[in-house]
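Incident log, support desk, overnight shift.

02:14 A customer reports that sequence design results differ from what the structure should imply. Their input is reproduced verbatim below. On-call engineer (initials T.W.) acknowledged and began investigating.
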């Protein structure tokens, strides 16, 4: 267990009962118990949609920036380095935003940051569309990235802390799966604008400006969401307020609890970063995300250039159609299967599976020369890797950090993992074109395969959280040596008593 910081209580424990066991809920189940066992309902779906828009924006922008940067480079006569900055600035901003807003959300609460990052995404997208020159475009892209990066830890943890233990992976995965919609909408919008005849100058501005629409659509809805009930009850000690808000937000699906539950003291940042167990989790979550994002973002953002090497005569519209086909045929089914099966397969196990197939696909393309000389086999194997990217680490590197950290540093931990992951993406954006120039397409695919092998290795550092409560996985409320005991919920006429696990 974590050692408490000087002057703080790691665990606030209630008085010991006559049986010698502490009883944090002598008068019935707490709001946390009811959340852990609540059925997946309308309020969960509402949270998925409101949280998911950030990831739609991220995926939309991830795809269209490659096309937009190509058009900008032609219009403004940019160098390769300048074009890389246009492409990578948002990712660098996301690196900073994930760290910064992840920490802030643990200090002031999830909800305030939840609204703020949506506003920042709107400002960044609109400013990108109206940028008059290279410098201001890069600055606007950095601002957009701050919002996208900040949205990662807050939306993931918000959904995780609202979820029950059985469906948590599916619900958090559904938030992330909004990326799939962005990956489809992005190329469709690009194809529509390119074929409209409005001119390249207006096309790239509209492509970037449309990224403001989804965030603008949910700012109001986010402002009406209640604060995370786990944060309110376990960190701020406001169990009654958490219960009242949750009962109202869930439309009565979760009834007013009769117990108050236990609270967890705040873990200070210095203690978090010096604790061996936490450092192991950081290495597992952030390391896997860094290695994955290097291979995924570097190759995805460079996909037009990669396809040009496979077929130098293909037009920009043709390469867009190929990319759209890869995403529609391989990536989207991967998202859907991951969401539907990850809680049964296991979140960590799914990450192992995805990294394994990624490594195999990239290494086969690197070893067999003929595969990179013909479009059909190249796209088939690249498509297979994209399926297992979604049915694997693209999903799980997002889900796992929202589960394994204690509640008082949960967005901090997720922000560290996401920020370091975005650093990997930023490195990939700049390194992939350089590698392609110096060691060729097969060489850069070999490096991507090695990165996937390393991602598999660091995943061994993580626990398996599927089917377990957040409190059990993170150790938030479990004292050393104690075991769960069963506490029956209050019986009702409609529902027979069902034993529930209660953490003591």
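02:41 Re-run completed on a clean worker. Output:
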């Amino acid at each position: 267990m974590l050692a408490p910081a000087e002057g703080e209580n790691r665990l606030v424990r209630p008085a010991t009962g006559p049986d010698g066991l502490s009883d944090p809920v002598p008068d019935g189940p707490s709001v946390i118990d009811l959340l852990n066992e609540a059925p997946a309902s309308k309020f969960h779906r509402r949270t998925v949609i409101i949280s998911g828009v950030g990831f739609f924006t991220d995926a939309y922008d991830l795809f269209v920036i490659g096309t937009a940067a190509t058009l900008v480079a032609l219009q403004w006569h940019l160098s390769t380095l300048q074009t890389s900055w246009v492409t990578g600035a948002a990712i660098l901003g996301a690196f900073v935003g994930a760290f910064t807003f992840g920490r802030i959300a643990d200090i002031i609460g999830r909800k305030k940051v939840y609204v703020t990052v949506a506003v920042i995404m709107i400002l960044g997208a609109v400013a990108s569309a109206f940028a008059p020159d290279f410098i201001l475009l890069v600055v606007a892209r950095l601002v957009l990235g701050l919002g996208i990066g900040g949205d990662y830890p807050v939306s993931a943890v918000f959904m995780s802390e609202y979820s029950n233990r059985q469906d948590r992976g599916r619900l958090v995965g559904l938030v992330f799966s909004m990326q799939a919609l962005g990956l489809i909408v992005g190329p469709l919008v690009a194809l529509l604008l390119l074929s409209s005849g409005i001119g390249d100058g207006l096309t790239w501005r509209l492509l970037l400006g449309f990224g403001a629409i989804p965030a603008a659509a949910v700012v109001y809805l986010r402002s009406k969401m209640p604060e995370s009930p786990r944060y309110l009850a376990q960190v701020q000690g406001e169990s009654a307020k958490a219960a009242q808000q949750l009962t109202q937000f869930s439309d009565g699906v979760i009834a007013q609890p009769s117990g108050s539950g236990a609270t967890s003291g705040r873990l200070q940042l210095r203690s978090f970063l010096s604790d061996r167990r936490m450092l192991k989790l950081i290495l597992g979550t952030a390391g896997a995300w860094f290695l994955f994002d290097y291979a995924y973002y570097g190759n995805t953002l460079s996909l037009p250039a990669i396809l040009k090497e496979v077929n130098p005569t293909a037009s920009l519209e043709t390469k867009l159609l190929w990319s759209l086909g890869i995403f529609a045929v391989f990536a989207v089914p991967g998202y859907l299967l991951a969401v539907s099966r990850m809680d049964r397969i296991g979140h960590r196990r799914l990450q192992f599976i995805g990294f394994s197939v990624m490594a195999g696909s990239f290494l086969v393309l690197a070893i067999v020369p003929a595969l990179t000389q013909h479009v059909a086999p190249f796209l088939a194997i690249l498509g297979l890797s994209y399926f297992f990217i979604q049915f694997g680490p693209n999903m799980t590197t997002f889900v796992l950090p929202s589960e394994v950290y204690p509640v008082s540093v949960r967005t901090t931990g997720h922000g560290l993992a996401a920020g370091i992951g975005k650093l990997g993406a930023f490195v990939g954006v700049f390194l992939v074109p350089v590698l392609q120039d110096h060691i060729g397409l097969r060489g850069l695919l070999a490096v991507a395969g090695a990165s996937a092998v390393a991602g598999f290795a660091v995943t061994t550092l993580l626990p398996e959280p599927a089917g377990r409560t957040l409190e059990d996985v993170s150790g938030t409320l479990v004292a050393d040596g104690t075991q769960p005991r069963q506490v029956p919920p209050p019986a009702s006429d409609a529902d027979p008593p069902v034993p529930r696990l209660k953490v003591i």
